[in-house]
Amino acid sequence: MPLAALMAVSILCCHDIGAEPAPYDINGMQVRTGEISLYVTNSTGDTIRYFVVEQETAAVIFWAPTCGTINVVTGTQSKEVPYSSIPGYSAKSKIIFSWWRCIESPSGV
User: Fold this and answer.
1) Cα(50)–Cα(60) distance, rounded to whole angstroms?
2) Under 8 Å between Cβ of 73 and 47
3) SS (H, E, C) the chain
4) C-alpha to C-alpha distance for 99 and 40, rounded to whole angstroms
């Protein structure tokens, strides 16, 4: 899919074991911490892609948003992201949740 526009939003959140989950809501994406997972709810009505990484790990890796088929949350879907799947995660980590929409170019270019 040709990429005409990309909207990316990053949310920095912390997880404290035993703490009340803190909801984060930006432009229709809700992210909530839990005991063993991050919970993502897409209320935008659009399909989004996301990437989650621990803050210090983010400083030493190179990544870029893609419009592939992994890490996808459709229209009004919710998804559980286990902390064990987050690169660099440990119990007191600060994590970065980035999400974006892929928009196909009308000209196909």
Assistant:
1) 19
2) yes
3) CCEEEEEEEEEEEECCCCCCCCEEEECCEEEEECCCEEEEEECCCCCEEEEEEEHHHHCCCCCCCCCCCCCEECCCCEEEEEHHHCCCCCCCCEEEEEEEEEEECCCCC
4) 11
Question: What tens digit of pLDDT does each residue of 31-52 get?
Answer: 988 889 999 999 999 999 999 9
Percent pLDDT > 70 in the chain is: 77
Rounded Cα distance between 18 and 46, Å, is 33
Residues 72-84 pLDDT 10s: 999 889 999 999 9
Q: Which residues contact 68 (CB under 8 A, 6 or more apart)?
A: 49
Q: Which residues contact 69 (CB under 8 A, 6 or more apart)?
A: none
Task: Determine the longest span between alpha carbons in the chain, in angstroms.
Answer: 51
Q: CA dist 47 to 19, 42, 50, Å? A: 31, 8, 10
